[in-house]
Amino acid sequence: MTASEPSRPPLDRSAVADVTAYWRVQVVEETASTNADVAERAKAGEPAGLVLVAEHQTAGRGRLDRSWETPPRAALTFSVLLRPAVEPAQWPWLPLVAGLATARGVRRATALTGVALKWPNDVLVGGAKLAGILVERVDTAEGAAAIVGIGINVSTTTEELPVPTATSLVLAGAEIERGALLSAVLGELPHLLEVWETATEELRTAYLDECDTVGQVVEVSLPTGETLTGRAVGVDDEGRLDVETDEGRTPVGAGDVVHVR
Ligand code: BTN
């Protein structure tokens, strides 16, 4: 290792000991995508609570059909299997819940300031993207399952970042072992999942408290290819971002948001 190469030890599995009452954590050296693997396991009957971590993903999936690629051991990449007992109307809030748990876990593990959410669930530090989340739903013989896939840039260098608007914990000034970070994020999930299953209003309040998007002028690239520009004014009961434009209020269910100011 040269002086400029980042240190990338294997994930410390002993660091997740305090969350094993709730989660079954498994670590693999390399796979294409932990979301794809956990979806297969869900279809094969795996119970809720599985957490699959990969030291390296070779075909990681991102939101809006993008890819998510990180160098071996540079990021914390994992997927959580849930089998939620919630009404269909509540499902769209799950990606926001996952974002909230990740932001809180990052803050707790690193004591970084300036950690915030960009709708729906990008975790930002100082306005740059630190973590991305992809929630997928799969139908299984035991009912609908949710795969919550989380990728957090940990020791990624500036040269390794996919876009200049991204960042990593090391670049933001935080040194953290990835097992300890995993434990912090997993530790936040059970309570938030309970709130998700029972109390929409409490969840919206908690989310808006940490979401930087609402109140800002935003540009949203919609899946149709169109761009919507306006002020984000809230999040509705279906987890959609309400954007106020000259033509009125538009609820946005999917899209890429840029904070203009
Ligand atoms: C995004 O911001 O576009 C979402 C990125 C989600 C990446 C994570 S890494 C672990 C899990 N497995 C995947 O293939 N994707 C998610």
Mean pLDDT over the full residue set: 95
Indicate the structural class: alpha+beta
The rounded distance between the terminal residues' Cα atoms is 42 Å
Largest beta-sheet characterization: 7 strands, mixed
What fraction of the residues are assigned to beta strands by DSSP?
A: 25-35%
Q: Would you write up a description of this structure?
A:
Strands 1-2-3-7-6-5-4 form a seven-stranded mixed β-sheet, sandwiched between helices. A five-stranded antiparallel β-sheet has the order 11-10-9-8-12, with no helix packed on it. The N and C termini lie far apart (42 Å). Helix 2 runs antiparallel to helix 4 and helix 2 crosses helix 5. The chain is an alpha+beta fold and 261 residues long. It has helices spanning 34-43, 94-110, 169-172, 178-198, 200-210, and strands at 24-31, 50-57, 75-82, 115-118, 122-125, 128-140, 143-153, 217-221, 227-235, 241-245, 248-252, 256-259. It contains five helices and twelve strands.
Provide the descriptors you would attach to this structure in a database record.
261 residues; alpha+beta; 7-stranded mixed sheet; 5-stranded antiparallel sheet; 5 helices; 24% helix; globular; binds biotin
Offer a concise description of the structure.
The chain is of the alpha+beta class.
Topology:
Blueprint: E1 24-31, H1 34-43, E2 50-57, E3 75-82, H2 94-110, E4 115-118, E5 122-125, E6 128-140, E7 143-153, H3 169-172, H4 178-198, H5 200-210, E8 217-221, E9 227-235, E10 241-245, E11 248-252, E12 256-259
